[in-house]
Amino acid sequence: MRVDRARVILVGHSGAGCSEGGGLYAPLAPDDPLPAAILAIDPCLDDELGRSAARTGRPGVVAWQDSEWPRDPDAMKRGFTDEGSTEEADRLDMQRLTVPGNDAHNAVVPVAFERFVPELLDDLE
């Protein structure tokens, strides 16, 4: 059985979205098919990640909580637009989620998964 990677949604949490060299937005070999979409849950929100996300050319969602520490989603948007045009930044769907509790960084995972994976799957059809 072969997996059609063009129909795969790549999902990662925290550091999976922070590593430019080996995370969700890491460059693939030229012949590697890109995933259909990327869902980054509570990653670093900085300009470096924005530039990496822009280079993938894939649509997706960046979902984060800000209960445990302050975030700067504008920095990620700036990095994204630094790599491309302002219109391309529109395909970067950035969503702040409110997650109560003491461990919001981990509790945001099922919340984001339940909220966004069905939408991303619908987009594949």
Structure, briefly:
By secondary structure, this protein is an alpha/beta fold. It has helices at 47-56, 73-83, 86-89, 104-124; strands at 9-13, 37-41, 60-64, 92-96. A four-stranded parallel β-sheet has the order 1-2-3-4, with helices on both faces.
First-to-last CA distance: 21 Å
- Specify the overall morphology: globular
Please estimate the helix content. Answer: 25-40%
Strand content: 15-25%
Could you please describe the fold and organization of this structure?
This protein has 125 residues and is of the alpha/beta class. Helix content is 37%, strand content 16%. The chain is built from 4 helices and 4 strands; from the N terminus they run E-E-H-E-H-H-E-H. It has helices spanning 47-56, 73-83, 86-89, 104-124; strands spanning 9-13, 37-41, 60-64, 92-96. A 4-stranded parallel sheet has the order 1-2-3-4, with helices on both faces. Strand 2, helix 1 and strand 3 form a beta-alpha-beta unit. Helix 1 packs across helix 2. The longest helix is centred in the C-terminal third of the chain and has 21 residues, at 104-124. The protein is globular and about 40 Å long. 29% of the residues are buried. The model has no long low-confidence stretch (mean pLDDT 83).
What is the strand and helix layout of this fold?
Layout: E1 9-13, E2 37-41, H1 47-56, E3 60-64, H2 73-83, H3 86-89, E4 92-96, H4 104-124
Parallel strand pairs: 1-2, 2-3, 3-4
Helix pairs in contact: 1-2
